[in-house]
Design a protein that fits this description.
about 270 residues, alpha/beta, Spore Coat Polysaccharide Biosynthesis Protein SpsA, Chain A, 9 strands
Length: about 270
């Protein structure tokens, strides 16, 4: 486990809930007809006894993903289905779900079923523990014993190594879709396509703390990957320059003070 230090001025009025607040699980999906229903059922089982909702965001699928989700909703009333009118990518689907969420705490996981919903309670517990750092805003999963093809693992390791060297974000596996974070913190981040690959660095840029925990990984049982190895690496390197640009232009006011009428002010 590793963590990153906050910049206090950026955290003005950030007061995260601990304990057991309502949870919104956001699942981006594109052409996941074969596994959508089973994944919804697994998420619901993992969160049994909690106050939760599942927001499945269909990114303009060409198959029967929406029909499968509608069928799943009959046995899972906590499921909400959002549908993009055009394919907009994974990061936009995540943002759509977060914007629609009613809970203060968000969990994301990939719609392909390779993230194990059984890991959700552990990731949540790490974020919501009573002794968590005051500015801890996200806990990100890091996959152990990845079951992807060797070529995909190699491309992922290369991209992660370059990103980690350039951004110094402490993350070894930003491609893991399983993350838990506060909705408020996410909405303070600048949006761009492929944002989901850089969440630890962007959270740190805003002054939040991020921690990492090991999670499992499963083979894809249905459908196929939406990325090629070369395409994934090319996009990661291209976007890396944009994140470097954002980091270089992040300026802190050191402190923020609010002067209340008729009272002395406190320095934050």
């Amino acid at each position: 486990m590793s963590s990153m230090a906050p910049s206090p001025a950026s955290l003005y009025r950030f007061a995260p809930e601990r304990g057991a607040p309502p949870v919104s699980v956001v699942v981006p999906m594109h052409d996941e007809e074969g596994g959508a229903g089973a994944l919804v059922a697994e998420i619901a089982a993992a969160l049994f006894g909690r106050d939760f909702e599942i927001i499945a965001v269909d990114d303009c699928s060409r198959d029967g993903t929406v029909a499968a989700l509608k069928a799943a909703r009959r046995s899972c009333p906590q499921l909400r289905i959002l549908q993009h009118g055009a394919n907009a990518g994974q990061s936009r689907a995540v943002r759509t779900g977060v914007l629609a969420a009613t809970g203060p705490v968000i969990v994301t996981l990939d719609g392909d079923g390779q993230n194990d919903p059984a890991d959700i309670p552990g990731v949540l517990a790490h974020l919501l523990r009573a002794d968590a750092p005051a500015h801890l805003a996200m806990v990100a999963g890091e996959r152990r014993m990845r079951l992807d093809a060797a070529s995909k693992r190699t491309a992922s390791r290369l991209a992660n190594a370059i990103r980690r060297r350039v951004l110094d974000d402490g993350a070894t596996d930003t491609g893991c879709g399983l993350k838990a974070f506060y909705r408020e913190a996410f909405l303070r981040l600048p949006y761009f396509d492929h944002l989901h690959r850089y969440l630890p660095a962007l959270m740190r840029r805003e002054g939040f703390e991020v921690e990492f925990v090991p999670v499992g990984h499963r083979q894809r049982a249905h459908g196929r990957s939406k990325y090629t190895n070369l395409g994934r690496l090319r996009a990661a390197l291209r976007d890396l320059f944009g994140v470097v640009w954002l980091k270089a232009r992040a300026r802190s006011p050191a402190t923020i003070s609010e002067l209340e009428p008729g009272a002395d002010y406190d320095t934050i």
